[in-house]
Amino acid sequence: MKRHVLLVASLFIASFYVSSLNHITGGYFPFFGGLVNFVTQRTINKSSAASDVNGLVTAQWALKDDTDRLTAKIADKDGQMISEATFIPQYEEDGGWVLINGVKWATRNVGTPGTFVQGLEDYGSYYQWNKGTTNFLLWEDYYNSSYWNSTSWLKANDPSPAGYRVPTSAEIQSLVNTAYVSNEWTSRNGIYGRKFTDKATGKSLFLPAAGCRGDGDGILGGIGSYGEYWSSTQFEDFIDSAYELSFYSGNTLWSDWNVKSNGYSVRPVAE
User: Is 23 exposed, middle or buried (0-12, 13-18, 19+ CB in 10 A)?
Assistant: First the structure.
């Protein structure tokens, strides 16, 4: 029995072929009309389907949580049990998000407000803290605005697509926790950045070294050398600053803080 699991948002589609042994020829042939009962581990949802003339069976189910599983119990037309298989959802990096140390990180940077960039390694747009538009304000104009005078990034100013938000400093800390997540400087399609890998699952996340826009002149710099990613959390000691994720081409990596008027990348998390 061959099987495949595909993730579409929070909906999983499981498809597989059912075959039976031909005792005369020693080969396998498609099993037609067999009844397959699907039972999820974490929900009470149940469904059934019959294999087609090619032996193909397909089922789909909504994920309740990260421990959910789908069990397929296969029986013949007379109800005799033939086989049983359990499907484990596989999170792929090119999906909407990837689970790293308990946090659902988007696989792409924010582009224009409310959208993700197309490629996993695309840099995206640069945002000043608590400001949901990309028109850049020099530092004096920014601090004369109301954007900076907030203790957290307001939902009304969040440039993340629907269902996502700017991560908190605690969520960034979980990403750089080397007890559970490894990281390395690498490149993807010729774009440098840092790859974070969950040690328990092997799932990974790539953040491109997109550089930043300085608040003094708004000029973009540092592309390919370092990355700066905002958190939604204000720095406690200086209200004109906020926590961010900083990484460089060397081995240095930390959860840092800087002035809110700089233009940094946004990598959101799923709500």
Answer: exposed
